[in-house]
Amino acid sequence: MKFKTDYETFRGAIATIGKAVKKNGINEMAVVKMEVKGNILELSTNGNIGCIIQVELTDGEDGEFVVSFSELNIFSLRKCTGKISASSSDDGNAMTMMYRNGNAKTVLTRVDVVFNDVAKPEKDTPKVALPFATLKKMVAETIFAASREETNAGYGVHLNIREDEDGLLALTITCLDGLRVAQRTAYAVKNGDYTGTVIVPPEQFKTMIDIVDASDDDANIDITIDSGKLYMDYSKKHVCIPVLDKKYPAVQRMIDGEIGKDACKFSITIDKRDFIESISCVQYVLQETGASGVNSSAMLKFKEKELEIGGIGLSQYGEKIEAETVGEVPEPAYFNPDFLKEAASIYPKDKITIGVIGPKAPIWMCCGDSNEYVYCVLPRKRE
After folding, report:
1. Contact residues for 237 (Cβ-Cβ < 8 A; gap 6+)
2. Are residues 235 and 276 in the same domain?
3. Are residues 240 and 265 in the same domain?
4. Total domains present in the chain
5. Hey, CA dihedral for 272, 275, 261, 146, is it positive or negative?
6. 201-244, pLDDT tens digit by residue?
7. Cα–Cα distance between 47 and 31 in angstroms, integer?
8. pLDDT given for residue 109 in this prediction
9. Among 195, 139, 132, 135, which Cα is nearest to 168's?
10. What are phi and psi of 16, to 5 degrees?
11. How far apart are CA 59 and CA 65, in angstroms?
12. What is the pTM assigned to this prediction?
């Protein structure tokens, strides 16, 4: 096996595949397979996250070589430019890497393991595609609400692909942790007849997006579901993660139900920046008083044309924000201030509209003609 390529390109490929290796867990079993196929070098790693990165070669001789990721990563730490060339020994147990115009070399040792190839979907499996910028934004606007506890009924990122009434294909991502729900919908490019639902581990899904990381925001990312795995492909990158075999809570029933977004009897619209700053100020005052648990809650006191944000025990302090209101003013409600700030920070508009049912029901933040963005947070119970 031999190959020649640009060092920076090779180094970048190692860094990218390292994202998968690190999430799988770096140990003596963390290996990378290097395989030359014509003028392409494929770097592959396998585990909970399977990943293949392709590198274009200026010269190559077919063959494969398995090396520990740690050894390959150490080689990539060298600061040099220009070309590198590699060639395996006659017995295939070593790989000599030449760099700095052939004046320096490193010898990599072959790892004698059976490497399981990274899974790929069947050739004719239907797929959908979204621009990378859209996909990345959807994940940012939902993943923060995903439970990290595997025992939580809401653990996992829920992806639903369906056709709407007009025959357009929509992808909906939903995350929840039992105290809040974040949901984002966007229209996809149809390539096949696939519709369906899957649940994937949140940390692996987030890493998958980090690996795909398209250089062109408008570039389409191909998404495929097949044989118990979720696949994403872009240019010279192929990533797959497992699909969870579990049931997901009936989130949509809640969103559309008696305490859902359409049941709100009062709405209040406020400036996004004012809302975030006011919550931060109240949080600071609560921390200074030593408040903890439910006593560190932010109180939302709704008024005509005004929202006042305070806290338990802060009778003499409150942040007031001008607002537009519609409907009968409800009683005050108490919420985790971090949840409110997180939702407000990623809310896609400068003005936030909050729908309110009552002090014991969730509040709703929705926007878009078809509620493309939906977020709700449950109130805290006062002791």
Report:
1. 16, 51, 52, 53, 54, 211, 212
2. no
3. no
4. 3
5. positive
6. 999 999 999 999 988 888 999 999 998 999 999 999 999 999 99
7. 10
8. 96
9. 195
10. -65, -50
11. 17
12. 0.91
